Amino acid sequence: MQFARDVSSIFIAFHVIEVTASAEFGVMLLAEVTTMDNVSVRGIAQKSIGWSIAFSVLLIVVGLLAIATPLMAGVAVTSIVGWLIVFGGVMHLVFAWHVRAAGDYIWELLIGILYLVVGEFVVWHPLAGLVGLTLVLSGYLLAKGIFELMLGFRMRPVPGSGWLLVDAVISLLLAGMIWWHLPSSSAWVVGTLVGFGILFSGISRLALSLAAKRVAA
Question: Among 171, 175, 174, 173, which Cα is nearest to 147's?
Answer without folding.
Answer: 171
